[in-house]
Every structure is written in C-alpha cells, then in structure tokens.
Amino acid sequence: MTTPRDSSAGDAATASGMPAGARTDQRKAYLYGIATVAIWSTVATAFKLALRQLDPLQLLLVSTGVSLLVLAAILLCRHGARGVARELAAVPRRELLRAGLLGVLNPFVYYIVLFKAYALLPAQVAQPVNYTWAITLTLLSVPLLGHRVTRRELLAVAVSYAGVVVIATRGDVAALAGGNVGGVALALVSTVIWALYWIGNARSPLEPVLGLFCNFAAGLPLVLAATCIFSTLPFRAELGQGLAAAAYVGAFEMGIAFVFWLKAMRLTESAARIGNLIFFSPFLSLVFIALLLGERILPTTLAGLVLIVAGNLLQRRG
Q1: Which residues contact 39 (CB under 8 A, 6 or more apart)?
Q2: Which pLDDT does position 291 carry in this prediction?
Q3: pLDDT of 31-73, one tens digit each?
Q4: DSSP 295
Q5: d(CA 277, CA 127)
Q6: Do the Cβ atoms of 247 and 256 come closer than 8 Å?
Q7: CB contact at 8 A, 287 and 45
Q8: Are the C-beta atoms of 136 and 308 separated by less than 8 Å?
Q9: Alpha helices in 52-150 (DSSP H)
Q10: Could you report the per-residue pLDDT of 103-130, keeping only the tens digit for each?
Q11: Which of 133, 158, 289, 303 could form a disulfide with 191 if both were Cys (CB 3.0 to 4.6 A apart)?
C-alpha cells in the first residue's frame, strides 16, 4: 500500500502538509478514512485480475503511468501549473535527488517484487503476508535508525510472523517445502523494500503528493526500460480487461487512496482513530477475493490474518 506515515497527530499534520492545529472535522475524516480502506480492500483483487492478462512489468508500466497522470492532475488542481513550478523550483537539488533515488524503490523495485509475488501466490496468501510491512519496519529501525526494540515489540514480531507461517503452510509446517516458497519469500521481501522506502521518505521536506509524484516520475523511465527489455508493451485490444484493472491500480491504489488518507489524517482529531481503520482492510479484502476471484478462503488464512493484525496492534500500542 502506498501510505504516508500516521504514527501520531503531529506526524499527521506534517504528512498532510498542513500546520499543526489546522481545523479538524472528525466526520469528514472518517469518511475519507473509510473510503481509503475501501480502496485498499480492492487492490489485491485488482492485482490478480490484471495479472490474468499482463505480466508484472506490464502491470507496473500501466499503473505507474496512470498514477503519474492522476498525481499531476491533483497537483495542478491544487496549485496550478505556476504553483507546481514554484514548488519544484524551491526544492533543494539534494532533495529532488533523494526523491529520484526513492523512486527506484517505489514504484520500481517494490511493485515488481510485489506483483511477482501475487503472480505466484493466491491473493489470500500474498495480501496478508505483505501486510506485515509495519513489523518489518520495526526490525529495520534498529540498525538504520538506532531504535531500541521493546519486549512488547519483539512479541508483536513473533505473533505476526507466526501468522505468516500459518498462512504459508496452511497449518502444516511440513507442507511448506511443497508450497510456493519463492512467492512467500517475495512477499516478505516486498515488506523490506517498502519499509526502506518509508524510512528514506520519512524525513523528506517535500509536500507528500509532490514527493510521490517525483518518486513516480523518476521510476517510470526505469519501468519502461525494463518492460521493453524483459517483456513487451501491453497496449493491445485483446488485453483490455487487464489494462482496465492496471489503470484502476494506478488511479486508486497508487494515487487517490494516498490523497484520501492524507485528507483523513489532516481532518482528524486523533490520528490513532483513523489509523485503526486500516485493520479492517485485510478482512474486507478477503471478501472481494472470494467474490470476484472465486478463491475459497481457508480457515488457516483467517487464523493467520488474525495473528498478523494482532501483532500489528500490539506493535502500535507498544
């Protein structure tokens, strides 16, 4: 998921690009938050629908291009062409370089790995495993940010990864070798890449939507080059359904959801109230996976997801 930080009310104000103490509207905050969660709940299904006709690089090319257009339109509506030009001109070159380098992580490397994981795994496996990125962030913050991990956070890590094991093995550890170990490994690697992107982006002074636009503008040429070298351009009429699903991913998962979440965090009286909404997303996602993809949701998927969410909640409260 393309999500800004939401750890505190102060972070929420910073992430939204609005000053602390700006006017709040809890009702609207909930509406934006619920809309965001609804979008996030559909993306695992959209990934799999797109991957029925497109390979991961083709999916990423279309979704990144559409996302870039959506982000550009949002920036132009907010600031106008001159305002956007002024903002870009005011950004120090080192920060633009940082944004460009972060674009290598997101969207380029992160989504290639994530989409490949979805291509190899059932959606009900890939989606919960990818949801452990916040736990991965806790682990990486120790060597990269010098944070100390508490006993509660270590317990959260153990609980979440126990959930991954339950989902990946379907409750039978001996069956892991016979399953798609590579797909599970890629889903876990995607959490590392996203956590690294989050750490690199957390202190960026860029307004969040502008920063994401710069990331995607830097990543798109890499995606295009990789698609031309390792795949083919997907713009053919017979790929219409896959292209539509990829465009949905770009417009909503990579663009509109990000902006809605920022709006929710800007308007809320408490970042924790809105942040807790995200825990509905993986369960609602399973409903779409079952209805639209026809996957039979296994009891071990639900059990593992409960453990992963419990670990995330435990980590947040630590």
Answers
A1: 252, 253, 256, 257, 260
A2: 96
A3: 999 999 999 999 999 999 999 999 999 999 999 999 999 999 9
A4: P
A5: 17
A6: no
A7: no
A8: no
A9: 56-90, 93-103, 110-120, 123-130, 133-145
A10: 999 999 999 999 999 999 999 999 999 9
A11: 133
Query: Are residues 208 and 264 in contact, defined by beta-carbon separation less than 8 angstroms?
Result: no
Given the structure tokens 């909640």, which residue do they identify? 313
User: Tokens 């969040």 sit at which residue?
Assistant: 208
The tokens for 38 are 């609804």
Contact 257, 40 (CB under 8 A): yes
Residue 228 has which token pair? 């031309």
Query: What is residue 18's predicted lDDT score, i.e. its pLDDT?
Result: 45
Contact by Cβ (8 Å): 290, 61: no
Instruction: Mention every residue, 6+ apart, whose C-beta is less than 8 A from residue 19.
Output: 13
pLDDT value of residue 153: 87
The pTM of the full predicted model, rounded to 2 decimals, is 0.89
How far is 219 from 105, CA to CA, in rounded Å?
8
Q: What is the pLDDT of residues 264-285, one digit of tens each?
A: 888 888 777 788 888 899 999 9
Q: With CA atoms as reference, report the closest residue to 209 among 112, 101, 79.
A: 79
**The Cα angle at residue 5 between residues 110 and 18, in degrees rounded to 5:** 130
Diameter of the chain measured on Cα atoms: 61
High-pLDDT (> 90) share of the chain, %: 63
